[in-house]
Amino acid sequence: MGVEHTIQDKIAAAQNLLADLPHGQPFQESLVLAKERFQNRQVMVAVFGAFSAGKSSLLNALLEQPVLTVSPNPTTATVTKILAGRQGELWIEAKSKDEVWQDVSDACRRIQLEADSLEAALAKAESLQPAQYGKTARTSLSYLKAVSKGYPVMRHRLGQSWNATLDELRSFTADESLACYVREVQVPLANAPFAEGFVLVDTPGVDSIHRRHTNVAFNYMRQADAIVFVLYYTHAFSRADKNFLQQLADVQNVMGQNKLYVVVNAVDLAVDEEERHAVEQRVRDELRSLGIVEPRIYGVSSQLALAAKQLKIKTDPKFEQMARVRLQLGPEEPLPVPDEIWNISGLEALQKDLMTANDDVRERLRVETLQREMTHLMNQIEAEVTRLGLLQRARAEERERFVADVETAHRLLQEEKENGAVLRNVQVQLQSDCQELIFHIGERIRLRFSNLFREAFYPGRFVQSKETKMALQEAAAELAGQLETQILVETRTFSLRLQKIGQELLEQAADALCARLPQMLRAAINIPDIQIQLPEVQAEDVHMNHQPLLQSLHYFRSARQFFEEGGQRDMLEAVEPLQMGEVKSEISRLTTQLLEHLQQQWAEMEQEWIEAWMLQLRQFTEQGRAEEIAENQSRWQFVAEEWAKLWGLSRAQ
Length: 653
Hints:
The protein is an alpha/beta fold. It is built from 24 helices and nine strands.
């Protein structure tokens, strides 16, 4: 708290310095915003993983109490936020009708069911039988039937939110036909082991059938302070796992962060320590191959951890049985004491790291961000001191030269406003930088294509299926979906890189334009605080023509011919160049849209700061009493000196 109090005292002193200053209102407003950002102590921990990996079970263990319902249904994913250290009522928000229709229409597309409204889709789904579909499509059909069953109850709650008790939430989420309508749940938990300000988020599974959930995952991927990725001990990495981790690796690379904590859950299933270490090493190797350079891996048993904490509170036959099963103990064998079970669970290291490491990192980032903002304000204060000095000179013997410099600066800015020559220079650099990035997007997907193809057209799909045509269509749909996912992952990463490049180049343009102004005026010009924001690429933005793939299914005549006699190889060789042409076309379309949006934003921002600079130039020649100008400069000079001392900054020479 010492650092906190010291900084709060500094902010209060800074507010006093700016009080009642002439032209000081914008500075006071900036300081208030900086103070509000500093006081936001929220730390967000987002938990990801496949539906069967044990995300909810792990969160219950971290929270040391059974808060979340452990659902076996892979279609009812909801965002659940646990607000640690908070009092209040639990809050449930239902999806809007548009969100439900988006999920339903996606499911209809996957089972090739045509419907032009939510009600029509649900009515048609009622009559369909799972036996008509393959394994993948049956998941979508199961979702549609759940939505149909719950619609009479939930139709009047769409888009609404309401308070509930924890018991009501558990009964609500246990019913798949109701849970599939829930968009988000917030659970205040005053007795959580995490400090106030921690928010733990149970996210939809990375293998969710809903495209909208990839957008949700990407947002939390960027916003979260820590990401916990859960893998089940006996499960290999799925394609959905790899896609998520590949994207996370790219995001971390762009943002210069490592906020991933990988949990191998249910390690109590290991035969011995040697097998457990071998599994953890396999996970480490897989993570590195996906671009996670320094993986943090925790082997835990979430059920043992929860049982230990609950048994420490009171004896409970349910949790005693849970511990016996996980420890493989017979009914007559003695159960270890709760503290020993807790140590065996392996959860303590993860819990401590999430509590301390992220709190420390968050605190450091808060202080660094505040210091950057105070430095920016210092530069603006120095510019005001210079401006007032120039006003004094403009009233004295140098007025003729000063007015000439102002006129020159005004002319240069007007020229740039009309023809954008400085902006065109950085646009050339932008095109050069992006051309190579876009080329490598296509190359990376091309290198993955054969693996994606073989994962979709695998022998087991055709051995298990009685209907070859249905299996082929499922395989083609899976490959098409994976290619769209690859495009989505890559273009999102490109967007992050483009945002960073765009900001750097626009700052260069501002500096270059300022450098063209007469030297006397440069120090008094405020270089803008540039913040580029590009639109997020959404899953529904990706559209591809998959006809080349569908037209190549004739290469499959039988499972033996396809997998043993070269049919798979022939189809791959035929379809890859055609489908990659479609992939590159879609990449070009999406990246062009992002570039056009950036350049439009550049043009608008340049116009804004040129207008602001022209206004400053007009103020340089404003008339006023010499005594008043001198007094104002003296006051701003004092503020600059005290501000530099307060925040440990050097003054401009």
